[in-house]
Amino acid sequence: MGKLVVTEFVSVDGVFEDPGGSEDYEHGGWTFEYDRGDEGNRFKLDELLAAEVHLLGRITYEGFAKAWPSREGEFADRLNNDRKVVVSTTLTDPDWQNTTVIAEDVAGQIAELKADTAGVILVAGSGTLVGTLLEHDLVDELRLMVFPTILGRGRRLFPDGIDRRKLRLAEARTVGPDGVQIHTYERA
Questions:
Q1: b or e along 47-85 (b: 16 or more beta carbons within 10 Å of the residue's beta carbon)?
Q2: How far is 139 from 187, CA to CA, in rounded Å?
Q3: In what order do the strands lie in the sheet with 167-175?
């Protein structure tokens, strides 16, 4: 049985919108204002290297598919060659190699993906998808890289309407000179 892990960059007030600056959000690229240090960078690489499958929503997929195929290095090589599953009702013929699409019965197909996967299924970004995964109780672990900023407005990671989920803090640590926090939560 695979372990479904959601990994996100979030502000102290829970905003996860446009951390890389590729969208049209007024504070786009806000994560680049902070140094997460070698330890924070290693954390992101290690979680990518541990993933067997990358599960993405369409918007995140399109951003990744535009950015990563032209890049080089260990992170890019792995992401470009790994298996990717994108959830979308509008994307039918993905160009990025090793990508398949889930368009119907999202919860059922992701439950099946978990059953057929031995390792980690990693979800980055993909806010609408994360809401669906939480709604159907498919998330096994949350990894939040919390940046010391309040953005005040923007899309929040946990939308209203999600039922209560009891979690256990498995790890908390500070990385980099700017005080970025990594919080890992597991099902309680």
A1: bbeebebbbbbbbbbbbbbeeeeeeeeeeeeebbebebb
A2: 8
A3: 99-102, 83-87, 51-57, 120-124, 3-11, 141-147, 180-187, 167-175
Judged by DSSP in three states, 185 sits in: strand
The residue length of the chain stands at 188
- pLDDT tens digits along 30-53: 999 999 999 999 999 999 999 999
Is residue 176 within 8 Å of 39, Cβ to Cβ?
yes
pLDDT band at 23; cut points 50, 70, 90: confident
Pairing mode of beta strands 99-102, 180-187: unpaired
Q: What is the three-class DSSP state of 12? A: coil
pLDDT digits (tens, 9 = 90+) for 78-136: 999 999 999 999 998 999 999 999 999 999 999 999 999 999 999 999 989 999 999 99
CA distance 140 to 63: 25
pTM of the model: 0.94
Give the residue from 79, 17, 72, 70 showing the smallest Cα distance to 48: 79
